Amino acid sequence: MSGAAATADYRPALRAGVLLSEPLLHGPRTVHLVHHPGGDRSFEIGVREHFLLARMDGHRTLEELGTAYAREYGRRLGDAHWRQLLALLGTKGLLAGAPEHPAPPAAERPANRLLRGSLPLVADADATATRLHRAVRPLLAARWIVPLLVLIAAMEITLALHAGVLLDGAVTVLTHPVLLAGVFALLWLSTAAHELAHGITARHYGGTVGEIGLRWRLPMVIMYCTVDNYRYLATRWRRIHVAAAGAVMNALFLLPFFVWWLLAPDGATADALAGLLFLGSLHAFTMLIPLPPLDGYTIVCQAVGATGLAGSSRTYLTAVLRRDRTALAGHPPRARRVYAAYAATALASVAAALAVLAVLAHAVLTR
C-alpha cells in the first residue's frame, strides 16, 4: 500500500471471508485472531488493531476511523501509523484488492514418510461434510440431543456402579489377543466417528471442513477431520459444541453395546462387552482431559476465552514459583485466576487418569 493511498478519504475494506475472533487471553495480554479466507491461517492482533479492522467495511474513511479511534483511546493515529498498518494488512492479503497469498498447494507440502504422514481421503472435504450433515441434521436438534445426552449420562452412571465387573471385562479383553483385536477395531471405528462428528457439528453451525483423511504415526493409524474456522463461529457455545462433539460421539457409539451388555447372560460375551464399555468410556473421558491437543483443552480454552492457555499458564506459574514480581505485575486479575484454575484442573485430571490406568495395570498383572 503506497503512502499516497493512506489519505483521509481512503475507505479501506477487509477481503471477503476475513474473520475476526472475540477477545482472547494470551499471557498477560488480550488479543484477537484474524483468519485469512485462503485456508487455516490465522494472525494475532491487539485490541486496538482489532478496533480498526472491525470497522474497515469500505464505507468509513480513514478520517472517520481515526476520529473513532481517538474518541476510544484518546489519541489520533498519524499518517505513518496508517501506512504501516495498511501495508501489513496488504502484505498478508487481508485487504480487498490486495494480492492474494494462497496456501501452499498439496504438491509443495512435505512428502509423506513411511513411519509418519497423512493422506486426504476425499477431494472436497467440505462437500463431504455437507452431505453427511444433511443426512443427520434432524438428530442435531435439541429434541434429539437432550434425550441422547440423558441416555449417555444414565449409561455412564450405571457403568460406574458396576466398575468392578467392567474392570474384570477389561482384563479379559486385554489378556485375550482375539478379543483385543476385535475391541481395538471397534474403538478405531469410534475414533473415526469422533472425527466426523467434529466436522458435521462445525458444518451445522456454519464452519468449513478443510480436510478429511488418515494420519499415521506407526503403528497407529487414525482418521482426522480439520475445521478451518471453528474459532470464529458466532458464539462461544457453538465452538464448545464442536469441540465436545467427538467425545459425545464416542459415548453414543457405546450405547448399543451397553444395551446388549444389559441383556446378555453371564459368560464370554458379557465379559467382552464389559471390556469394550470400560475401554470405550476410558477413551471418551481421556478426550476430555484439558491438555493439548485433546478436545478437553479446546473446550476449556473456549470456555475461559483464551488462546495458548497451556503455555500462558506455565509461564505464569513459573513466575509465581520464582516470585518474579515484574512478570506477575503484568498479569491482570482475570488472567491470574484463569491460569491458576487451569493448572489445578489439568493436574487433577491427569492425576485421575493416571489413577485409573494404575488400577487397570494392577488388575491385568494380578488377576
TrEMBL record:
Keywords: Membrane, Transmembrane, Transmembrane helix. CDD domains: S2P-M50. The keyword Transmembrane applies. Signal peptide: none annotated. The chain crosses the membrane at residues 141-163, 169-189, 240-263, 269-289, 339-365. Coiled coil: none annotated. This is Peptidase M50. It comes from Streptomyces xiamenensis.
